[in-house]
Amino acid sequence: MSEEVAIRLPEPADAENLLALLDRLQQESDTFSLADADDPVSAAQEADQLNQIAGSPRHLLLVASLGKTLLGVCSIAPTPQGNVGELGIAVEKKYWHMGIGTALVDEALYWAQTASELQAVGLMVQTRNVAAMKLYQKLGFTRTATPPTKVTDDDGERVTAVEMVYQLAAD
Asked: What EC number(s) has UniProt assigned to this enzyme (predicted)?
């Protein structure tokens, strides 16, 4: 690649490209799904959401971009516990194994440590997603004592998933 991949906060002008990326990610992966995928969002609504997220100490959204092309996304959203954020990440397949996922998660954890009100960042990962599990472990996530659970993937298949957590250092 002659251009360098940038890890950055999305701008409202990215809304249409972000929605297109999320659609591509859902189509090419059975480990990535959106909570409200059945409720379409317009580019204007997405731009408004991006503005709201940008001002939140409990929400983060990052994108990986190559020029104007978005190729990955990472989010941290608050959970019902309030002091724990849930990590979500996805990178287009053609950009896998290039360090983009690592860079996105690393930047998200830096934000969680330095700019958020969170005490931990957690996630559920399908055990068949070995590359993701290795990435999370490499970055300091550990499995919780919570027993493995079954989740339904986008194809309707029940698969095993485990909970992992990254503890943020106390101030």
From this structure: 2.3.-.-
